[in-house]
Amino acid sequence: MNLFRLLGDLSHLASIFILLHKIQTTRSCRGISFKTQALYVTVFVARYLDLFYRYVSLYNSVMKLFFIASSVYILYLMKYKYRPTNDPSIDTFRIEYLLGPCVLLSLIFNYKFSVTEVLWSFSIFLESVAILPQLFMLQRTGEAETITTHYLAALGVYRALYIPNWIYRYITEDGVVDPIAVTAGLVQTGLYIDFFYVYFTKVLQGQKFELPA
Amino acid sequence: MGWDIWKDEL
């Protein structure tokens, strides 16, 4: 564990609390992509199956359980408690275009051709693109509530902090890297660049998040 | 120098 990774994980935790806060205070999941949230549940369940056979640390196990539980809870809120505020007609990204390639990639690129390893690879590839339905929705509506942009920013910061974490590990662990995690992680961080541009130039200057028409 | 699998990461 190093400071970059710890801050990254805390930023990931913060993003979830911001999202829960947004849904509960506005009593609405308007502007949140159900598809992206469902993909995150898929990612966490596929990856954290290792809770059953690998113990890393108490921190690691607690975080994994929290990510699974909170993502399922968010789906519940969107699908049941605040269902009327969820508008599927603007959440139109075709997720089969993400799932198909991720299945294929995980069958080709994995560290061992076993069920758990292929699922691990699949979860890494899927996480890297899981935000796309959300970004697509943002692009379509052209605007977002400020709190929703804080949620996305915290998620983006989490991914961005994993990059210095890998550089730090590369230096301190004798030039060792995890090629699947790093490649997918770089792609994932890249997806946030456009969003961050608008976030820093508008939202953090006190303006509303609006995309140019 | 080489590849490793970082299964300790979340």
Counting DSSP H or I runs of 4 or more residues, the number of helices of chain B is 0
Largest sheet geometry of chain A: 2 strands, antiparallel
Shape of chain B: rod-shaped
Unreliable stretches of chain B: none
Strand content of chain A: under 5%
Could you list the spans of chain A in which at least 5 consecutive residues all have pLDDT below 50?
A: none
End-to-end separation of chain A in angstroms reads: 44 Å
The total number of structural domains of chain A is 1
Strand order across the largest sheet of chain A: 1-3
Approximately how much beta-strand content do the residues of chain B carry? 15-25%
For this structure, the quaternary state is heterodimer
Radius of gyration of chain B: 8 Å
Compact description:
The complex is a heterodimer of chains A (213) and B (10). Chain A is built from 9 helices and 3 strands.
Could you please describe the fold and organization of this structure?
The complex is a heterodimer of chains A (213) and B (10). Chain A is globular. Chain A has one domain (3-210). Chain A is built from 9 helices and 3 strands. In chain A, strands 1-3 form a two-stranded antiparallel ribbon. Chain A has 213 residues and is mainly alpha-helical. The termini of chain B are far apart. The mean pLDDT of chain B is 79. Chain B is rod-shaped and about 20 Å long. Chain B has one strand at residues 2-3. Chain B is mostly beta strands and 10 residues long. Classes of the chains: A mainly alpha (213), B mainly beta (10). Chain A binds chain B through residues 5, 9, 12, 50, 54, 56-57, 60, 63-64, 67, 111, 120, 162, 169, 173-179, 181, and chain B through 1-10. Strand 2 (176-177) of chain A pairs parallel with strand 1 (2-3) of chain B.
